């Protein structure tokens, strides 16, 4: 097995765990929702998601820009794609392709061990309350720091400053789990310990090595 990409400080205890949500706890990708509408036209779908409804454009939702405003501006920019762009909010729920059940099982195990759990997520504020209502596991988090509410997205350092204030423990005593290296590198500048999420099995291995879960 190759080495895990994580920061490990075995002599420093972890007193709070912070989880990203998208592609750590739930599977999310606009492709899940749009693929059936393009009916096998993969090149057109790829173009649409890389040149029209891009992740950079969607990040504005994560930064607190209302869907309606952001969609309208993009429709004006790409009138030939007016209808497909207009479906972005309608298709929001279909962009989630199920839970990562093994990660959720780890959340429940950590909670049973009385480890404080938090969420730090790039997520539109106007969609997060409904997401919480749909998914019972979100009740395990003592607090959720949501980019759309704060109007700042990872890896902006200001979001980690908000995280540290809300969690209320020293940075070195926090373990942050995320699937994007740039988000972890930003956290490490503050002294936060990190784990690059690739699979639940590797996460479990790291949690056991840190004595956060029993072997």
Automatic annotation (TrEMBL):
Coiled-coil ranges per UniProt: none
Keyword Nucleus assigned: no
InterPro entries: HAD-like_sf, HAD-SF_hydro_IA, HAD_sf, PGP-like_dom2
Family annotation (Pfam families): Hydrolase (PF00702)
Keyword Transport: no
GO MF assignments: hydrolase activity
Keywords carried by this UniProt record: Hydrolase
NCBIfam families registered for this protein in UniProt: HAD-SF-IA-v3
PANTHER family: ALPHA-D-GLUCOSE 1-PHOSPHATE PHOSPHATASE (PTHR43611), FLAVIN MONONUCLEOTIDE HYDROLASE 1, CHLOROPLATIC (PTHR43611:SF3)
Protein's UniProt name: HAD family hydrolase
